[in-house]
Amino acid sequence: MRALTYHGKMKVQVDSHPDPQIVNPRDAIIEVTSTAICGSDLHLFDGVIPGVLKGDILGHEFMGRVVEVGPKSTLEVGQRVVVPFTISCGACFHCRNQEFSHCDNSNPVEKQDMSETLYGHSMAGLFGYSHLTGGYPGGQAEFVRVPFSDVGPIVIPDHIPDEQALFLSDILPTGWMAADQATVEPGDTIVVWGAGPVGLFAAQSAKVMGAEQVIVIDHYPRRLALARKMGAKVIDRSQTNVLEALMEMTGGQGPDAVIDAVGMESHGFGNFNLPDTIKQKVGIGADRIGALREAITAVRKGGRVSVPGAYGGMSDKFPTGALMEKGLTLRTGQTHVQRYYRELLERIERGEIDTTFLISHVMALEDAPRGYDQFRNNQNEWTKVVLKPKWEKGRQEEGRARTELDMEAGVAAGPRPAALSTEEALHA
Amino acid sequence: MDRDDSWLDEPRPSWPPHGALEGHHFGAPAPRPGPLTERRVVAAAATLGLGALVGLAAYAYLGPSASQSKRRADAPRLTDDAPGRTARQARFGDYAVTGRSVTIDRPREEIYAFWRDFANLPRFMENIVEAGEPEPGLSTWTIRAPLGQTVKVRSRIVNDRAGEQIAWRSTPDSQIETEGKVMFRDAPGGRGTIVETVIAYKPPMGALGQAVAKLFSAEPSVQARRDLKRLKMLLEAGEIATNVNRRDKANKAQQGGPSVQADLSRSATPTAIPTATA
Asked: Per the CB < 8 Å rule, is A1 touching B278?
């Protein structure tokens, strides 16, 4: 089979691998019909997540048809399923508590030593995401062996197209859990750092949960335009003083909950991010926490901090003073996909959630290396990339994030606005 | 099984040290590093060079004085509640003592019964090639050792309480001197069973042998941790997780029993997967 393979920092290519087989009784083999590049794949691409080895197959957002099942799988050949990126046994203490991404039994024993040393406890297994989380071959491939297939995959009715359901695998429940962990209450202002796919879904989720005001912060105009299109207010951090703006947009109180959907590769040079960046470059620090620092400073006293953004190592200058003195609640974690995906599928079917507005490009799996390159280096235009293993090399289509934004004059990246006049500054 | 006390009459090796298998020994007059420690520190610093010397100088200036250190060393210590094997000492007499606990969401009796059938041990213990009970109360294990060697251990079951405990001690003709036990008790809050193993053994070739074994992940403390996790996977999830996606790459844990393999080969329909396009 063909699969996107890691060949070192900033180097991925589509290689041939042996087709996967059933190895354990609960396995199933999925023939992938759609898969996507996730923002967290870029952390792997950039080489900042430890334990990614040359030859690893990447990808953890995928769906497809069941082509083979083990004797203990409950799936049937031919079913169309979305596979959660978290691998969960469904039987351990954590799975029974609906904490599926903390599963004790899905990370191979030999792989647990590394994360136990680094984090004190081992992680659950994840598809295509470093040997810290099991080193499982990922979903940017023609076929995937799916362990515990009686617990993970969710069957999708045929009338729902791939693009609408695909993101149930990760970013949709991740955004939803981010808002859930931020706890949306009537009258609340929820602020999201990062208008990437997870940030956009977190903002949409907070709206659906009844937030009074959702504010999204980024510096890419097209990504901010997507946030605005689904009802959020936006702050362009390259034009606006973020902390001051958030105080002024919340009556001097500060936001009730903040969501860090940026993670370990925060941009910019504010908030001590410059020394973080240098340390990450020379390999003596792992996480750049500029966005998280700003979020913790911005949130109101007694507020909630929700962190869906991915971090992998350690950081400096974590604002423990603000965290304690303001009495904040910090909630984090990889997504417990199986806790949320049924409810989210129903909301998709009822049309309450839009899952395709952020797709900018659909392309052949064979062209995935270009997808990685553009998704990383052209973040304004490339907001979400879907890959098709069945498409011939070179075929590419535009997604709604391009076709619709381009039609709406003024939201696409135009020339930089001139300095505000006195009147504009006086305007509320 | 009735309790067999005949082993009590057997000559007992010079172990276990006081309380190594039970509570901390801090309350007992245990050997304590003497004032030699500082001299050892100085010797190490000389080899490590100037940086360490600077650190030492800073320590001498800012750290506790000799009389402070002595007062601290002499201060009475509370006997704490931590298991003895977690004490900050590597050896208990000639023996290394190691142990590990795991919580498994299955009833006590079931886990006991699975373990008591020694033929099951190789299914989750990576380094056990073969295990059996050739005569009641006597078990034999063939253990994989570093550098392709195997070691045979013969041990007598010295305590066997259904659903609670299995304890063993190697017989005098065994290749390794070892003693250990596995205990089963109900986990609080209906969370299943806490399985706790404690193993004492005399490392072949002493500390060097232990270091070499550790290097090859064949050391009992590493193995105990991994083996108990595999047991948990097998009993909770029904299979042992692996990231390999080809059966020829799977190890014995996935190949499970012959029955599992038979099932798999029946269901596996190679023609179901179209040939790779490349």
From this structure: yes
